[in-house]
Amino acid sequence: MFQFPAFISMSFFSDIGDQFYQSFVEDGRYMYIVEGLGATLLITVFAVLIGVVLGTVVSLVKVAHNNNPKKLRIANGICSLYLTIIRGTPVVVQLMIMYYVILSATNVDKIVAAILAFGINSGAYVAEVIRGGIMSVDRGQMEAGRSLGLSQRTTMVKIIFPQALKNVLPAIGNEFISLLKETSVAGYIGIQDLTKGGDIIRSQTYLAFMPLIITALVYLVIVVGLSALLTKFERWLRRSDYR
Amino acid sequence: MITVKNLHKSFNTLNGPVEVLKGINQEIKHGEKVVIVGPSGSGKSTFLRCINLLEQPTSGEIWFEGKQINATGCDVDQLRRKIGMVFQHFNLFPHLTVRQNITLAPVSLKLETQDEADEQAQQLLKRVGLESKADSFPGQLSGGQKQRIAIVRAMAMQPDVMLFDEPTSALDPEMVGEVLQVMKELAEAGMTMIVVTHEMAFAREVATRVLFMEDGNIQEEAPPKEFFSHPKSPRLQNFLSKVL
């Protein structure tokens, strides 16, 4: 007959159901996880949107300035400053500054503050990723587009950008995954996100194992799902490479 | 059709400015087939790229169909529609199918509807014997096929002049012929062409005029017969003795 090693006491298994009950079922504590997950996803999705838009604009300004140093001097200066500040300071500090300093006088919801802070943070990383992607597209592509009479803008949108997107997708996917996990510091401004939810259960039941492991598992499942989705999208973008 | 006056072009390098074109004057008439030959580094490609302003001239004037193309305020995009260009490395758009490559510009610029452009693409593809490749991606084609598609892509804009920048230099030898054949047919159809190439046989057969460039200047020009059989300057004689 199968025997468990002696160091795992049978009480561990008999306790596990009990622990689960205390952590999630009693007093409806599972709602901390569910509502926390909702907040985490809400912040992540909108921060990603802000990050992509902001990052795209910043990268386009930087590329345009790079191609013609006389153009967009001031805008480029602002973008460089933005990149330096955001990449040079921790996201938790940016989050707290956003909520306790910049928005302190306003009545803005904590979630909105977090969306702004994480979105602005993500934008800096996305900008550099996209800029790298645009620069990786062969110069001849722009020349070919322009030689056909297409404007700089049309060539950028229809020829350069789709190719750049394909090149940067793995890196952008990484950024989304990082962002999802970074939102776990939202508790610093009192948001009950997934991490905070798990932690509240721990503090109420004095049981650390269950809530924290489940919290970790929820993150893991989302990240794995997101990766699978990105892989699919990437394969679709690469359909022109198959021969 | 194209007039070039005292064209100068310098590039800024780490070792200071390098003058690549040193005062070029040319007059290219409608229907001419001008072939430019010369050693590498002589400025042939730069000259060609100046004509549609892929390179901005340092000084001088370039006129195309009565407009100065390098004047400030000139709508270059508008003029480029009428100047087709074929590149050494094809520069097809790898993320688009062959048909999309061909129809992108005319449709984006609202010169044709998608249906009209598709129809035209099919006809042009037929002319170069690639009608079966319309739905392929460039990555699935051979070099010779890519270059023929690139020619078709330029033709779809119905240009008044075609510029060829060493169109066969990046091809495997067995594919050079099919591209030259397409260019020859284009020439016979009356297209004005300016061709930078190392294919002397093509120059001899198709050109109405051959230019010899060296050291940023046009050293000698003549109809092909005279150019190849009675080269005047010792530099051209030397060049021809090496390439023929």
Key words describing this protein structure:
heterodimer; A: 243 residues; mainly alpha; 9 helices; elongated; B: 244 residues; alpha/beta; 4-stranded antiparallel β-sheet; 10 strands
Any overview of this molecule?
The complex is a heterodimer of chains A (243) and B (244). Helices cover 78% and strands 0% of the residues of chain A. With 243 residues, chain A is mainly α. In chain A, helix 2 packs across helix 5, helix 4 packs across helix 5 and helix 6 packs antiparallel against helix 7. Chain A is elongated, with a radius of gyration of 23 Å. Chain A starts with 9 loop residues before the first helix and ends in a 6-residue tail after the last helix. The relative contact order of chain A is 0.14. Chain B is α/β, with parallel strands linked by helices and 244 residues long. Helix content of chain B is 37%, strand content 26%. Chain B is built from nine helices and ten strands. Chain B has a six-stranded mixed beta sheet, sandwiched between helices. A four-stranded antiparallel beta sheet of chain B has the order 2-1-4-5, covered by helices on one side. In chain B, a hairpin with a 2-residue loop joins strand 9 and strand 10. In chain B, helix 5 packs parallel to helix 6. The two termini of chain B are 32 Å apart. The mean pLDDT of chain B is 94. The interface between A and B is medium-sized, with 22 and 30 residues.
